[in-house]
Amino acid sequence: MAKIVTMGEIMLRLSTSGNQRFVQASGFDSLYGGSEANVAISLANYGDEAVYVSKVPAHEIGQCAINELRKYGVNTDFVARGGDRLGIYYLEIGASMRASKVIYDRAGSAMAEADVEDFDFDKIFEGTDWFHWIGITTAISDKAAEVMRQALISAKKHNVLVSCEINYRKKLWSEEKAIKVLKPLMQYVDVFFGNENTAVQSLGFKIDESQFKGKTPLEREKMVLKQIAKEYDFKYIFSTTRTSYSASHNGLRASMYDADKNEILLTKEYDINPIVDRVGGGDSFCGAMIHSFLKYPNDKQKALEFAIAASALKHTITGDYNLVNEDEVFALMGGDTSGRIQR
Hints:
14 strands; globular
């Protein structure tokens, strides 16, 4: 059983019922979520040892967040307690041509105010196979960014494979601040989840468009991913491509670039219509990719197809978490899209 550590901020999610707008809502549906927590829950569902590291308040709402993680089998032994509040995000779920909308309320949260001394990283990374983090966590405060930097230093000291998904959020910081904070942290990253846009926005990656004249979209994608891998010394890059026909209808596929072999793999594309809840779709891809990459090291195509099928299934589930098991993912990979009742 692989041991994977994730670290970040779990939040209270308050979403409108159905497809109501914020101004219509007389109440909110309360759930919990956050990128690294979402990844940890996916991993636990697949049978991995998922360890989540964070800081939450030492009151009942903080305990509710911990209970939520424990309910799905996530190890919360290294969740620190303290601070005044749990971060919140508000979600208005869109439909058709109206996009979904997120409003953050995370300033001064327990994780944003966390200190390096809150965590025993040597103990956390003992016997760990993989460490996964999200760029969003470094955006919530300078203190959180320093905590993450120290975690990365410790992970590499323990020879842990490190993956990162950038996930630039313009509502949390500017591109200039993102580049300043994130670019130096890439020296600790082996596996990058992202694409051309996130590399430009968050890492300051420069692209010379003249080199792509006469190239097919696939040739361009391979060239760009190769350049990103070379510049930041990534071993692998995993990327998803989403075709947004509407807020309720998307196409989704994935690609993988292997720097050692200089090859790119592509998955089939899934047509997702209607979407129940898109939030957490990228996290579900990361969790499934980490699981399948470790489980099927000699069959990267199978691992990649597993991850994108899992992500497609997440879009059918309300909430941040991807609550599917391996059998359900394999059924979709095998072409079962009927949606028939399982009796």
